[in-house]
Amino acid sequence: MKYKTVFIYFLVSLLPVCLALSGLSNLTPWIDEVMFIDTPMRYVRGAGWTTHSWYSIASRAPFMLYPPFYSMILVPWMKVFGTSVLACRSLNVVITLFIGWGLIRILQQLNLKMSFIQILLLIILLWCINDMVFMYSNGRPDLMGALFIVIIANEMIHSVKSGKRRWSVLVLSTFLMTSAIQASVCLVIVLLLSFLVLDTYRNDIRYLSFWAGAGIFLGFVVNCAFMAYHGHLSPFVINIFSYSGSAKAIAAFILPMMCDCLGIDVAYYMGKLSKMGIESPLYMRFISAFTRPAYLALLMADSAFLLLYLKSIKKEPYYLIIRYLFIMTLTVPLLMVLAGRYESYYYWMAYLPLFLLTVLLLRFPNCRWGCFIIAFSVMFILTHDRMHKDDSNYHELESFISHCTMLKDQKIIAPFSVFYEVSKLSIDTYYLGIFPPKALPQRVDYIILPERSADYGNDRLYDYFDIVSQTDSQQVVLVAENKRLELKVYKIKAE
To answer: b or e along 393-427 (b: 16 or more beta carbons within 10 Å of the residue's beta carbon)?
Structure first.
């Protein structure tokens, strides 16, 4: 029966997978996608393990300051499938497919049989909610962390049931930390909630937490060793603190004491901390974490279902699992906000348990009003997401850049919206929105300007353009323009 369920899942998933792949090549890239994909793309094209779209303290060829496993997986992926927009993004589509399979395996290990309606609902939630579409349609590594979390959850359930394979949790947790630090924080939260809620299994959870913690620590050591080898250990550690207000507060308390004991000047590191962005107020972060339309609609539907039929559900053998998933869905956003940041691309942390909870509630077909509420919620989400879906003209942009043959093998500064296409013409393409101007080569041949201040980082492009255009030894000449796309290509000439 379990093989039949998995077969049905993969068979029915072929349609959303094909639809997802068909739309990947017409979505305009965004800044994070360009930064995460640039390093493996340059490596595949023979430019080494470097980047022209991330930041660095001084280096002209900085390393991408993020756990490297996702980028390393992209290298063989790109060698097989190429470096097109579709090829680069398709890895996350495959990862999403296996995340769904992992969720089904969790339910199967809990001896929960799934009907066709439940499988179909899981597929709809996984592939059609706009937040999930956003996550699997770009090149960020977050879903790699989600996949490892699901695999670890499966291994932990298997370990509790059989008392075997505890070493696998250590290995998987190591890979988790080398894939996404935020996902490791999520694993800590999951283990903490498991210990508090699943009191019957506390001894097992305590033992598994030891192996998971050891794996997270080992993964952090691997990350640090890797960054130290590339000469970026200090920026890597500073980068970690920059994404968490809590981590910055801890660092501000601990650093002076550590530097005093080691005889190190603390002023440099405290200066770095003080320059980091100001966090929004805590209450605003709480509000934003719980007001995502799809998350809120589905959570309210499940809450209404539980309130209506709590007495009958309490009598079911799966009530403990339902309660655990509901608590996780509520508390993961809360604890992630307290730990640091909870951005839109981290919402899988709440969505995955929410999907499992919703699917489990459909085990009670007699609760008709509850099922109706869930169905209405799902229809609302899909309708809302479709109404707010962005149109893209990336194919037109791709065509415009492909006709700019003068860019071939030149040194080019480009906005992230055209970075993929310009990189096909020249490996010496820089994104200045993050990349420091001081790390640019002495001579740049072309600069591509988008609409002023339309996207993040474009102001830096215009600042650089203004500096160059006002330099006596150089002049800028407009050589190509697309008014519809609001793109202008300028050649930088020496006087």
So the answer is: ebeebbebbeebeebeebbbbbbbbbbbbbbbbbe
d(CA 182, CA 328): 16
Cα–Cα distance list, 413 to 256, 274, 372, 426, 440 (Å): 40, 30, 54, 11, 9
Instruction: State yes or no: pLDDT of 360 exceeds 50.
Output: yes
Residue with tokens 């959303």: 16
E strands, 355-486, where?
412-413, 429-430, 446-449, 474-482
CA distance linking residue 136 with residue 79, whole number of Å = 20
DSSP 480: E
Distance CA 349, CA 363 (A): 23
Judge whether 190 and 149 are in contact, CB under 8 Å. Answer: yes
- The DSSP secondary structure of 167-210, one letter per residue, reads HHHHHHHHHHHTT-HHHHHHHHHHHHHHHHH-GGGHHHHHHHHH
Q: Is the pLDDT of residue 409 over 60?
A: yes
Phi-psi region of 48 (alpha: psi -120 to 50; beta: other; left: phi over 0): left
Provide the 10 A C-beta neighbour count for residue 218.
17
Cα dihedral 462/465/467/473 (nearest 10)? -170
Integer-rounded Cα radius of gyration of the chain: 24
Of 267, 380, 360, give the one whose Cα is nearest residue 305.
360
Cβ atoms of 180 and 187 closer than 8 Å: no
pLDDT of residue 364: 72
> How many angstroms separate the CA atoms of 404 and 426, rounded?
11
Tokens representing residue 354 in the block: 């929410």
Per-residue pLDDT averaged across 265-276, rounded? Answer: 57
165 conformational bin, left if phi > 0, alpha if psi -120 to 50, beta if neither: left
Which helix (H) or strand (E) segment is 269 a member of?
Answer: helix 267-275
Instruction: Give CA–CA dist 367/329, Å, rounded.
Output: 22
